[in-house]
Amino acid sequence: MATIYQVSELAGVSLATVSRVMNKNARVSEKTTKKVEEAMETLGYRPNSMARSLASNRSNSVGLLVSEVHGPFYGAMMSGIESELRASGMHVIIAAGHSEEATEKDGIEFLIDRSCDALILHVEAVSDEYLLELSRGRTPFVLINRDVESIEDNCICLDNELGGYLATRSVLDQGHTHIAYISGPLWKKDAKERYLGHQRALQESGLTQSSSLSFEGDFQAEGGSQGMRHLLASPDAFTAVVCGNDEMASGAMDEVRDQGLAIPGNISVQGFDNVGFSNYMFPKLSTVDYPVEAMGVMAARWVLKNVYNKNDLAVKNVFRPKLIARDSVKKLPR
Amino acid sequence: MATIYQVSELAGVSLATVSRVMNKNARVSEKTTKKVEEAMETLGYRPNSMARSLASNRSNSVGLLVSEVHGPFYGAMMSGIESELRASGMHVIIAAGHSEEATEKDGIEFLIDRSCDALILHVEAVSDEYLLELSRGRTPFVLINRDVESIEDNCICLDNELGGYLATRSVLDQGHTHIAYISGPLWKKDAKERYLGHQRALQESGLTQSSSLSFEGDFQAEGGSQGMRHLLASPDAFTAVVCGNDEMASGAMDEVRDQGLAIPGNISVQGFDNVGFSNYMFPKLSTVDYPVEAMGVMAARWVLKNVYNKNDLAVKNVFRPKLIARDSVKKLPR
DNA sequence: CTGTTAGCGCTTTCAC
DNA sequence: GTGAAAGCGCTAACAG
């Protein structure tokens, strides 16, 4: 393995000069540049990234903490981040937080200890105070899907309230007036906001959420099934259910069918996230698009701009959800 | 940021001793150990991983190259790898290969340049020769889902032929005799082997694959739809279709319904992979389980054992697929 | 069991 | 525009 020293020797220049042509960060005469490049070429020189990092105090790596490494939602997010960062030569180190406070903190420390230049975090369990504290440290970070006061610039969010509103608005527009809701865990801010948006839409139409037609799920398919079981056992009738995310919608649909009912014939189902498989379901799920991949790309740009000084990049902090109407919501006659 | 030097000073010992207690790789008296640990504690010392790597020529990071960062299949694989490796303090750097030769090679070089101690590769486009060549380099690697002669020990595979056999065997067992097949791209070894297994099952029952009832897809949903369109346009009748993977099965199901037919009433569908959403589909998809997550874990163990000297770990190279019978295949009366 | 002493391969002032 | 030299923070012989 050739080192910078051998390159400098072959090219007949000093270490410093070789370093300069590698980094293109200082003027070097064209002639010398060429000599050096040729030397690198013939030696098959590859800079040692560790030595580089140690000397420059830059690792060119960014840490990415997601709740789960699998799952359609995080997959799309990671995909956007990876492609954007790698195109700039940065690498991404992943870690999972599993939505648990201790694991999330642990992951963050792990990433910081690994000398990441920056962090991209999708955290749910950790408190705002912890994040504020973290922001005083020397590792910069962006938050995806989380809005923390006083560090809004570090947040890339979806307008979840609006999304919740759109979801229910669309169901109302199809003529439904008896609408059930299966929410995510309400301690999660996004779950809460979606629910609030739902309620706003109802109120706008002069309706209110009957408490027996509301269920707090877990954002998983199983929670959707449970929720639907609970709702169908309730004395109140309903013609549609709005779910806090697509996974729960899927679980809910299973349960509806298990009870011998048809979708959307007897019960309409509305999802949220527009996760990959929502388009594979039957009937194809009506949902709200969550542009995760684009948001991942944006988070990566934030890092590129704020940490690696690519100042020409523009960063957008809040994204607007969009309704995706498909086949799982039935139009009711007035 | 405290350095090892300050710790040694505070503890009243040498650098070397501090290094020893950090790495637990040499005997240090209990008393000294304690002094050092206290010093570390009060200084809030965190070792600099870059300096460590440079000096030891070990980065404690392993590179992971997958075809796509998103997608249920890779998600499960990455998840297994991440958890297993992180539990041992190693970090994983991800890169995507997009099933293209140039991108895959590029990703591998990227990872090697990043001083990964080892690589876990899921590559499809790169040739066996390239991998053989790579195996002569100094970065060890494991291959997932690829079997290359003479480096079998570096391969963690599924018996795809057996899987293909099981898939079709199961359909035959339900009484079907007119069976269509939608394969993955046949230049991919796994697609090919699954197809071979399918044919073996047919032959065993004295049947052969009619060429008009066979279609080469792309392992994507769209390819499944196309395939089904093609098959339904063929003059030959069939009661079941076996698909090379679940995505294509999903696309095929869409198409069947678009043409007004029922599943499994008119046409039975068999998938392969047992990807997360196959259980959310309707009807629930009968498929073949591909234990990707377990295989990811195994790849991680291979690295732990062969690169990080955790010799107590056992590595299993070939996994057996298992049939998962659900609702998309109908039992035919004899 | 503990200390001394070279580096690991590169970046970065500071001169010239 | 180019070179000399001092580290970056740690590991790993080698001595004792």
Protein described:
The structure is a homodimer of 334-residue chains. With 334 residues, the first copy, chain A, is of the alpha/beta class. Chain A has helices at 4-11, 15-23, 30-43, 49-56, 72-87, 101-113, 128-134, 160-173, 189-204, 221-233, 246-258, 292-306, and strands at residues 61-66, 91-96, 118-121, 141-144, 155-158, 179-183, 214-216, 240-243, 268-270, 287-289, 318-319, 322-324. The mean pLDDT of chain A is 94. Chain A has a six-stranded parallel beta sheet, with helices on both faces. The first copy, chain A, folds into three domains: 4-52, 434 Repressor (Amino-terminal Domain) (Orthogonal Bundle); 61-159 and 292-321, Rossmann fold, CATH 3.40.50; 160-290, Response regulator (Rossmann fold, 3-Layer(aba) Sandwich). In chain A, helix 5 (72-87) runs parallel beside helix 12, helix 8 runs parallel beside helix 9 and helix 10 packs across helix 11 (246-258). In chain A, strand 8, helix 11 (246-258) and strand 9 form a beta-alpha-beta unit. The first copy, chain A, is built from twelve helices and twelve strands. Chain A is 44% helix and 14% strand. Chains A and B meet through helix 4, helix 5, strand 2 and helix 11 of A and helix 4, helix 5, strand 2 and helix 11 of B. The first copy, chain A, binds a DNA duplex (16 and 16 nucleotides) through helix 2 and helix 4.
